[in-house]
Amino acid sequence: MNPEALRELLAQVAAGRVSPEDAAERLALLPFEDLGFARVDHHRALRGGFPEVIFGPGKTVEQILAIAERIVAQGGPLLATRLSPEAARRLEQHFPAGRFYPAARAFAYAPQPVAERGTGTILVVAAGTGDLPVAEEAALTAELMGNRVERLNDVGVAGLHRLLSAAGQLRRAHVIVVVAGMEGALPSVVAGLTSSPVIAVPTSIGYGAGMGGIAALLSMLNACAPGVLVVNIDNGFGAGFAAALVNRRRPEAGCEPSTST
What 3-state DSSP class applies to 200? Predict the structure, then answer.
């Protein structure tokens, strides 16, 4: 149940097209639906503007499908991340109108066209080609949440001229997500070139002393440029979601101010 669907249901009750009893039946699954192995939070879209997202690791394919069915039944959209090849294949079979994005390792399905909700453009910057899976997860998340997203790839600090050639694109973006492994220096450099908020994503790309992304994480937490916010290692979804919230058009949840004549 999303805010738009709830407003429509209430409008139908007010107009007499839906009985209060039928409306109560439709709302009976709020705020969650107990599947035994999972309690699907159908209230999340009403609170935060986007349904619960399925994190694939640790779940069986059958569990992923069951949760996905209930999210879609409540109006979607559906996003499932970090999927195994088998889970992705089954979701494609079950929701043929959806799509699996191999680069992001995620499946997305929107039963209705996604309405644009952003105030500007979200720019997702990847330091290197090895960072693309995390960057694409961030970009897909932001797109599914109704934002215009641009991508800027392979502009790490080892060749700083590549980043500087895109200075105009950096300055036009409303929010910037910067994804980097190795030393993780890129977010600080980007933040020094723009007044937009920068959401930094450390990745686990790097050699042994990178400690699976911890070196990049610590570097980003110690960024000397102001305006850098940091999410967890490889958390492209969290960065894309946060960028969408920063970029969201206000007021929220359809609470438009009333006007008088």
Answer: strand
* Contact of 237 with 142, CB cutoff 8 Å: no
Q: Among 46, 48, 3, 101, which residue's Cα sits nearest to residue 241?
A: 48
Amino acid identity, position 7:
R
Give this prediction's pTM.
0.82
Return d(Cα 163, Cα 110) in angstroms, integer: 34
d(CA 230, CA 198): 8
Can you read off the two tokens belonging to residue 126? Answer: 């990847």
- CATH level 2 (architecture), domain 121-246: 3-Layer(aba) Sandwich (3.40)
- Whether the CB-CB separation of 197 and 225 falls below 8 Å is answered with no
Strand pairing class (121-126; 175-180): parallel
Q: Please write the tens of the pLDDT for every residue from 152-202.
A: 999 999 999 999 999 999 999 999 999 999 999 999 999 999 999 999 999
Q: What is the pLDDT of residues 50-86, one digit of tens each?
A: 888 999 999 999 999 999 998 888 877 899 999 999 9
Domain ranges of the chain: 20-109, 121-246
Closest CA to 82 of 131, 137, 35: 137
What's the full length of the chain, in residues? 261
Distant-in-sequence, close-in-space partners of 206: CB < 8 Å, separation ≥ 6: 181, 182, 183, 212, 213, 215, 216
CA separation for the pair 249, 229 (Å, rounded): 21
